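Subject: Sanity check before I submit

Could someone independently write out the structure tokens for this chain? I want to compare against mine line by line before I put it in a report. The sequence has 157 residues.
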Amino acid sequence: MREAQIEATPAERWGEGLVAVQAGEPVRVAARLESVHEGILVTAEVDTRYTGVCGRCLTDIAAPVEVEFQELFAYPGEEESDFEVQDNHVDLETPVRDTIVLSLPFQPVCSEDCPGLDPETGERKDEGSGIQEDADTDPRWAALRDVSFGADAEPRE
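---
Independent answer below. Compare away.
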């Protein structure tokens, strides 16, 4: 059994959506490599940071990525395997990249209560742009504003 601390930087962007790990962003891997009958079992913790834009308001966001994985690198000539030991070495790039990319949020948001953009002006709704939600209400629905549907409301016949 061996333990290794590795820090590397990807040569290209990892991720295709609104957020990704950018090229040159440090990726830290704390790996434990164990010799087993079938090959080498790698258990690793990966730390890095993603950047991109919010899916609701399009502001820039960045957040840490902390993921773990466990993968068996089989000896060559054994059964078919996704990963193999090559010249007594294991190449961790593919499992590290796959684990990071699969952990990235599909619809990232800057905050859980992000209101997004106003469809009329394109401005962020919470920036106090003076836009009032009721201003665009259809006048035919105006009478319903004063109707109470609470528990104390009396039914009409």
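---
OP: Matches mine. For the report I'm noting this point. Helices lie at 93-103.
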